[in-house]
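Quick entry, no commentary yet.
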Amino acid sequence: MSMFSKQTKSQTHLDKGVKLRKEGQLDAALAELQQALDLDPNLPRTLYQTGLARQQKKDFDEAIACYQKLIEQQPENGAAHLQIGRVLVEQNRHREALDAYRKALEFQPNQPARFHIERGDLLIQLDLDKEEAIAAYNRAIKLDSNLPLSIYKKLGDALIQSGKNEEAVVAYRTALELNPNLPANIRNMLMDALNQTGKIEEVIAAYHKALELNPNLPVNIRKKLEDALELSGLLQEVIADKAPESSALVNKAYLTSWSFGNKEEERQRFQKQVLMMLENPTPIYIQFGFAKTPFRNFLNLDISAGLLDKVKIPHDMHNRIFIYPWLDGPLPIPSNCIDFAFSEDMFEHLNQKQQFLFLAEVLRVLKPGCFHRINTPCIAASMAAHSDFSRGFEGVYQEEWDRWHHVNVPTRNLVDEMGSIVGYRHVLFNSRNGSVSGIGFIEYRPGNDRDDITGNIYADLMK
């Protein structure tokens, strides 16, 4: 067969393979592409299309092999490096992916805008160079003026994290000027950025604009701004629609309830953080129900961020705090992957069903030999200290439930039995800050309302 005839047949199989791949017929596409490779093993476009088909089939190692063979022929083929980056992201090999994106955009800086965005997203996700992420988003905007307006939120968020509040204001405002009816979270972020710059007149203007567009603005949005204004002594001026000539809002370099996404976004953010830590690897400690005391060396979960508005948690803790209803379903992380679990004054707020779900799910994700630490009030100690059962109904200390909103307060025996039922190997009782786990953390409870020794149960449950 002549060289010309081979090339013609190879091209025919390649064209068929591309068409079938785009139609989703991946096995048939790969068969055609293989015939094209048999006729011309080193045709760059065939290698690239075979890599794409393998990638679509989730045959990630084979896809990478195709792209690498192409790179051997064309070391500066940016498209091949980009696809390797995308495959590595699918495999949760984020740092390797970042290197592949860097090479791709170094060789071909005018790649489509979406690739610059993906690189910026990776940098933010890995909590790496924010300046590089900002540059990536700006490059994307320069390459394509018709990008979804969410790019300006990404840019604004990155600028906020870098302390560039003035530039963040510009990013959020650009999005709102292009489409004033964007979702409320963009305008919320604008107000957050303005808060941090201390430009009270502009904060008020943004707030009134938000109300103009949506008179039924959520209560939490109104309250956040009103709280900040009240702390600055400016609430009455705002209510009276009289902006003062000059003033400064409370520094907003701290996390608030506005700092977090919806429940699915938070769930995915938590999952990505755990997978990234597993890749390093880094020890994973999780605090469930952190309320007002998240730990810096833990991943901290809670179902509500409301209490964060009352305490000063630095913004750099954002990648350690996740807000979503984590007890509504399984944790989105692998089994046997975490090194320690902790909860303090949380267990008693669960009903019996939830307590078993919680114990079982922590047991699933905990590594063998590691500990689940529970610090919870003891109902036996509470009743002994405050009840007079001889008085019947009237003698029962009901504040244990009514004042503290407790649901199912256990005894030591109950914690021991539940742990054994669920399958923990040992349940060890000790004292406040006396965990046998060897993990460094502080137990803040109980407070003055209970005896420090008998008032709470301090239990280490070993898998």
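second:
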Amino acid sequence: MEISENSISTSTSRHPESVYISIEGPDGVGKSTLVNHLKEYFIESGKNVIAIKEPGSTPIGSLIREILLKEKLPLDTQIEYFIANRVLLHALIVRPTLKKKTIILSDRCVMSSLVYQGLMTGRFHEVMERHKSIEEFIWPDLTIVCTVPVEIAMKRLGKRQNKDDNESNWIDQESLEFHTNIHQHFIEADQWWDRPIAFLDLNRPLEESLEEAVRIIQSFSGWKRNR
């Protein structure tokens, strides 16, 4: 699998063997499960690794997450809440961690904002420029977009709602058309995302998905440079 290498971060304040990876994709594809298993794999391999979640991963971020997922807020409010969480998360966790020899696995990052608050609302360029203007924001070195057929994702979301899962939210209850459009935007991400990106099919046994995810990360030029 070819991975675009445009705009890889080369900040001198970073440890040369740090890497920041975002795991992206629509709701219900299995991103969180993948992140958890990747973390376990790298720990067992003797690597320093942390996993973060957007929004969340800090006390204030967790509060922002609860607010954002509880009900559908006005679009401008959504954008500012996500950015506030991201700036805080990067200042408190991402930037300090990148100064160490560590892998950061992020369950969602800026690509999700560009899809949900940008492409789905016709405000893509505004959301993109908003992030580019934030000095504190750090772009992921590599983004892995996870996919499954939309019908399978919808079934998983339905099960999540039936279990009264804490992760169930207003997005889960959106229409099939809404989720189909979300899936399409992620599938076409390489057409509008100009940074390193790879796609990962999660519609198969977890072991196979995990094996390919590890291979993608290890083949990423930034990773090989740090071996």
